Structures are given as structure tokens and as C-alpha cells.
Amino acid sequence: LGFKGMTIPEKPVSQIPNNMFFTLNFYDFPEHRTDVVELKHLDRDPRDPAGSETRPFFAFMRKSRVEGNDRVTDHDKELHIKYEIDPSELDDKEAHLDFSRYLFKKSTAIEVWDADTLMLYGVIRVPLQELLRQGQKEVTLHRELDCVHPVDGSITGSIQMILMHAGKETVRPLPQEFRKNVLQPIQNQTSRVQPGQSRKRVKVRPVHLTPLPKSEGEGGFGIDGNYQEGGLYHTTQTDQMRKKARVKRYITHNLKRETAQKYSEDSEHDWEKLKNLRDFTYLREQKKTDVIKQVLRERISGSMDLLVKPCQATVFQLTLENPFDCEECFTINIDDPHNPHSVDPEVKLVSDPTEWRFHAENNHFDEPSEWSMIDENKVVLKPGERCPLVFKFLSFKEYSDNAGVDLRQFLSKRDVLIWFHQFRGETINCTQLRLKPQRAVIDHVFRFFEPANRTIKCTLPSLYYYSEPPSDDKRPYFHCSNPRSMVEWESDSEVSIQLRVPESSNKMRFYVAAYSDELCINPLALWVLEINSLTPIDVQVITGQRETCVLSLRGDYPQKVTCHSSDTTLFSFPEQHAGEFVLLPGVINNIEGMVQSDQPKVRSALVHCVDTIARQLVHAWVIRIKSSSPEVDHVFEVSCRVGNDHYDKIPFRNESNQWAFFSFRSSNSNLLHIHGPEFALEAKDTTYLKVQFPKQQRAGVAEVFIFAVDKEESVSQCLLCKISYLP
Predict the structure, then answer these.
(1) What pLDDT band is residue 402 in, cutting at 50, 70 and 90?
(2) What is the rounded CA–CA span in Å between residue 478 and residue 311?
(3) Pairing relation of β-strands 571-572 and 507-515?
(4) By the number of CB atoms within 10 A of the CB, which of 108, 240, 311, 705 ranks highest?
(5) Three-state secondary structure along 346-415?
(6) pLDDT in tens, 642-666
């Protein structure tokens, strides 16, 4: 996908941004955000060499690109996105057919963002059917696609793109070799050597510090051969004394040896008991779960891989046979580690007879003897009877492969065990189901920016629906992954969603899937709704008059920021806050703004405070302006013909007692345009306003206000034009 540039209509709805970036979801790839491009104005469209194109053209020039951890300047380079898809490297055998169906039926939506204000500028829809190669080696298309405003649906420009689909030879993945360890890590604790740990195994025993009892007057020989008694040394003079000393030494030595041996045997016995207790405690705390799992694994008779996607039902069949010579009741239990006690499990046994028959006919499964033989999760089989059971997997969780999140809240890779038990409790069979999740194919991401802590009703525009809306007798079935949201079918091209917006500065994201049947088998579309909660500010003004509104923001540290409004005619900033300024840290910063509404109805404007250096959103507000009807000074009635422009003059008189320089503006420039909107007028003097009523294609009645205000806004008048469009 190559981005060349864009053309701007003569009367753009919003201000043309200086820098842009794009976000899109293509096939099952994660959401991609492009580099920032600069809009470079050219005198004419390069595709129009004759120069007959009058619309201004802006070329996309990539400002920088990321290489590793560095951002490299890369001027005068076109922006393009490349996706590589090789079905031979995927586990799905029908991946090439799925991708071909995606190109044939789907379109990809590309969001255009203002890189300076971080506001959504528009959305373009890229049809993909023409990219089917039909046996050709390469297909290249040049297209100019309208950029549609996400709120009012007006055209904000046209994006010129180059679409190319090129084929290449498939690459078969090399077979992977697996080595199976004899012992699991938990069973081989002694083989683990931590850094700084010795490999030598040393058996440690306690040191006995209990001294042997000494009798009073006990003595012995010192190191110099002299006899020691009572701490005094005596010289042995006779043989009798030496003999007596030898007998006493012999008796003392034998007594010590017998006592030490007896104590050593008792200590060895206590040490063995303590070691066994420690081993039993370790087995109970650490290995109990693994031992149970190992015993259960021995009951597993087969396994199968199942490729699953969010919001897409996957059906498979398992056969149960009665091995006994009598009639037996079997119980089917599904052990899912992520949904142990869920009311609505993701893996279900199909027990409804109508649904069972539907899946068997559509998937060419084997048929049972009776369609109503399953009662909840129990089935009764005759001796040797075989029953083909149908299971369905359906999850509305978002896919995630991030190890840092709670995988139970997302659709992640895991093993599910399906147990077949005899009614008395004996296990007959077990099948291991290896779930391999994949990313869902998202048709469009709807982003809403709403006030926090309020109940809202969002309407999905019909532009991003399927190309052929369903008829009245075949309305689609909707399912929302957010249980606190309610989806309603309004018409053939409108769906409403009612929900509660979270706290300020939070984001809510969930799926909304549309199906052609109530069993959720044939998906029509899959959307992602992103609800951004903003700080609400309600302002009430008089139509045509300007009021001051103060925005409060606490600064954590000094930041250079700029404030931007999504509609400068509704909410604007004075000179001190119109450009870059610094947020003061540790205090509440008051940012003044001017509110002005020219139509007596409720209108909204988004205000973003953006860090100019990091290009990150600091804070966001939603300004809800409720304007009351103004006091009308004069009323004029004008008749116009349908399909023709009408020119007229409207009298205006300066009712003040002094000279004034007036500025005139229309509440709706598409219905009434003022020529020469500024001029001076003496006190009590009268002149005429030259106005133009652009041609309209339908008959009807409209009302347009003309506001006259002097430069100091001390004098103001309001004129009302009632326009009748006649055929």
C-alpha cells in the first residue's frame, strides 16, 4: 500500500493539518501505525500534466523513520506499507482460501490522523476485490479514495494510493526437532546449579555439643606425661600408681566410647526422621499437582490441535464408544484452565438436537442414532454403541500473546481436557485439545470520544457495513463482548449501542460481531469499539454571542504544550494560549478559551493538550455547548427556486448612537453567503447587505441567522432569514 498525496476540496470542513500519520488493520495482522508524513503543497497534481485540476494537491513526504532504537531523518521518501503472507508457513491448511475470501469480500479502513493535534481527521475505505491476481504474477492499481469525516460524514479530501499485489514462491518451514527430557524440571531439582553454587553434594550432620559428665576428683595425664588431678600435677613415683592410672584411663575411655556410640545411633535415627518429614512436605507442597497431572496424563488416549479465532465458531467431532457388555450412562466433562467455573464456557458440548443436526449436515459429520440422546452432559449408550459427539468453541475475548498480562482475560494458547467418565466415576477416555489462537480479521475500528461517567448511545455509520445490507426478514444477529453494553438493530444501515462511559482518561475496548444466524456460525462483520472517556465541561450560551470558558489542568513537571480544538468556530483560544506555552509544575494551570455557537442546538468540540516534544496527549476535554435562541431584531422572508442560485439585498441599520465598524457572519454558509462581510456605518445610518443563497436540490423551508457585531463587541444585532425553496 503506497500513499502518494491528497487533494483538498474547495471548501474544506476542517483545517488542513501540516503532518499526518495513518493507522489500519489489514487481514489478521496487528494494528499498524505508520511514520509521520509532512504535507508538501504542489502547484498541481502530478497525475494531471495539463494543469486542468483546480484543487490544491499536497504530496506526502515521510519526515523520519525508526531504525532500531534511533529515529533517522528520511526526507523526500514516499510512504508505503508491505505485508507478506505465506500460507505454507501457517498451521491452517486453508489459509490461502481464507485470504482469497478476505480480498474478495472485505475492505480495509485506513484512519487519517493529524499528527500535531492527535485528532482523527478522516477515514478512507479501500476495496480489495480488484487486488485478486486471477493467476497473474502481479496486479497494480492507482486509486483516489475519499477521506470521510468520522462525525458528520463530509468529504475532507481525497487520498491518492498505489495498491499492488505480487505473488512469490512459497517457503516451506523446516521441521523442528524436539528433545524430550526424561525428568521434568520440578522432578530434577538437584540437577539445577545456580550461579555461584558448587556442584559437590555435601551431607551435613548436626554437631553434638553435649559434654560427658565428669565425676568429682576425675583426673588424667597431661601432655607432658604427668598425672593431673584437681588441676594439680603430681609426679608418678611408683609402678602401683602408674597401674592404677592405666586402669582408670581404660575404664574412662570405654565409657566415653559406649556413650558416644549410643548417642550417635539416636541422633542418626532422628536425622533420618527429620529428613523424611522434609521430603514428604516438599512432595505435598511442590509435587502434588504434578503427580496428579502425571497420573491424569496417563489416561489421555488422544490429542488434537484446534485453530481458533475470536468471535468465530469452530466445530469439531469426537466419538464415544461403550466398551461394556451392558447399557451404561457416560458423563462428559470439559476441563478448561481459563474457564474452570464459567457460566458460559468457551468449549461446549452441543446437546441441542436442532443445532446438532445443523452442524452434522453442514460439516458432513457422522449422525447419531438419536438427535435427542444427550441430556445436558450425559449420554446413555447400548453395549458396543458408538456416538459421534459434536463440540463447539466460541470465544469473544481479545487475542493476546503478551506474557505480561493475565492470559485468563484474553484468548491465549492453552490445553483443554475433555473427559469421558462412567456414571459411577471411572474414567473411560480423555482427549487433549491443544488450542492455537490466531488474530481475528477486524473489519473496522470505531472510535468514540465521549464525556466520562455518562450513559451514551453510539450509532455505527452505514459506510463501514457490508456492501449488501440484509433484508428485513433476515436481520443479523449481534453479539457484544462487553456484558454491560446493549446492541440494538435500528434499520438496514444503522446499529446503536448503549453503554456507560468509564472514568475520565480511561479507554474501553470490546468486540461487536454480526452473524447471519443465531448460532454464530456465519459471521458477517467484526468491529472493534474503542470508547475514550474525556473530561466533560458543559457550557450554556446565547446563540451568536461569545463567552469565556476556563480549562483547569494540573502540571506534574514543566512541559511545553499546545492546545487544539476540533472546531475553531465553536471553541477557540486567545492569543496567550493559541500557540506553545509551558505548563507550570505542582499547580493548577488555567487555560482560557472562547465559546461561540451560531446555531440554537447542542454541539460538542474536542480539546486536546499535546506535548509538542514527545507528541503525546497530556489531557483531553469534551466541551458540550448548549445555546439558547437569540433575540431577533428583524425578520426577512426570501423565496428561492430549487436548482438555481438566488441573489438579494437585505437592509441593515446602525441602531447605536455612534459610528461602528461591523462584521457580519452567517449561521450556515451553505444556505446563505454574505458578500463584503465588513464595513463601517454611521450612527442611525442604513445600508444593504449583498447576500447569495446557493442552489439547493430539494424543496423545503430553512432559517438562517445573520449576526452583526462591531469590533469591540459592544453593539450586536441579529437578523433572521426565513428561506422557502420552491419547485
Answers:
(1) low
(2) 11
(3) unpaired
(4) 311
(5) CEEECCCHHHHHHHHHHHCCCCCCCCCCEECCEEEECCCCEEEEEEEECCCCCECCCCCCCHHHCECCEE
(6) 999 999 999 998 888 888 888 898 9
**Residue whose grid cell is 435500528:** 490
Over its C-alpha atoms, the chain yields an Rg (Å, rounded) of: 41
Point out which residues pair with 335 in neighbouring strands.
417
The string of DSSP letters for 120-169 reads EEEEEEEE-GGG--TT-SEEEEEEEEEEEPTTT--EEEEEEEEEEEE---
Question: Which residues, including other chains, have CB under 8 Å from residue 372's CB and lie 6 or more apart?
Answer: 353
pLDDT in tens, 692-707: 999 998 899 999 999 9
Q: How far apart are CA 718 and CA 707, in angstroms?
A: 5
CA distances for 609 relative to 16, 76, 143, 555, 622, angstroms: 19, 30, 35, 12, 12
**Residue with cell string 480495509:** 108
Helix (H) or strand (E) holding 680: strand 678-681
CB 564 within 8 A of CB 608: yes
Query: How far is the C-alpha of 279 from the C-alpha of 273, rounded, in Å?
Result: 10
Residue 57 φ/ψ, nearest 5 degrees:
-115, 135
Burial tier of 34 (Cβ tally within 10 Å: 0-12, 13-18, 19+): buried
SS3 450: strand
**Cell numbers 466460541: residue:** 394
In single-letter form, the type of residue at position 632 comes to: V
User: Which of 513, 476, 481, 515 lies closest to 499 in space, CA to CA?
Assistant: 481
Strands (E), 204-285: 219-221, 227-229, 232-234
Q: Is 586 left (phi over 0), alpha (psi -120 to 50) or beta?
A: left
Question: 477: closest CA among 509, 413, 523?
Answer: 523
Give the span between the Cα atoms of 498 and 519, in whole angstroms. Answer: 23
Total-model pTM: 0.74
Q: What is the pLDDT of residues 252-284, one digit of tens each?
A: 766 656 655 555 555 556 667 777 777 777 767
Q: What contacts 470, CB < 8 A, 6 or more positions away?
A: 476, 492, 516, 524
CB count within 10 Å of CB 702 equals: 17
What local confidence, expressed as pLDDT, does residue 17 receive? 85
Amino acid letter, residue 285: E
CA–CA distance, 102 with 165 (Å, rounded to integer): 14
> CB under 8 Å to 408, separation ≥6 — which residues?
338
Nearest partner of 29 among 442, 306, 412, 308, judged by Cα? 442
Q: Which helix (H) or strand (E) holds 96?
A: helix 95-105
- Pairing type for strands 602-611 and 616-628 reads antiparallel
Which residue in 519, 458, 467 sits closest to 490, CA to CA? 458
Find the farthest-apart pair of alpha carbons in the chain and give their distance in angstroms, rounded: 155
**Mind giving me the DSSP string for 688-713?**
EEEEEE---SS-EEEEEEEEEEETTS
> What is residue 328's three-state secondary structure?
strand
**Banded model confidence at residue 193, pLDDT cuts 50, 70, 90:** very low
Q: What's the rounded Cα separation, in Å, for the pair 75 and 63? A: 5
Structure-block grid coordinates of residue 468? 449488501
User: With the CA atoms of 348, 353, 359 and 365 taken in that order, what torsion angle do they form, in degrees rounded to the nearest 10?
Assistant: 100
3-state secondary structure of 418: strand
- What burial class does residue 718 get, using C-beta atoms within 10 Å of its C-beta: 0-12 exposed, 13-18 middle, 19+ buried? buried
Rounded Cα distance, 167 and 85, in Å: 10
Cα–Cα distance measured from residue 164 to residue 578, given in angstroms and rounded to the nearest whole number? 43
Question: CA–CA separation, 565 vs 341, rounded Å?
Answer: 49
Write out the three cell numbers for 566.
476540533
Contact between 699 and 726 under an 8 Å Cβ cutoff? The reply is: yes
Chain segment 592-624, per-residue pLDDT in tens: 999 988 888 889 999 999 999 888 999 999 999
Q: What nine digits make up the cell of 276?
A: 523424611
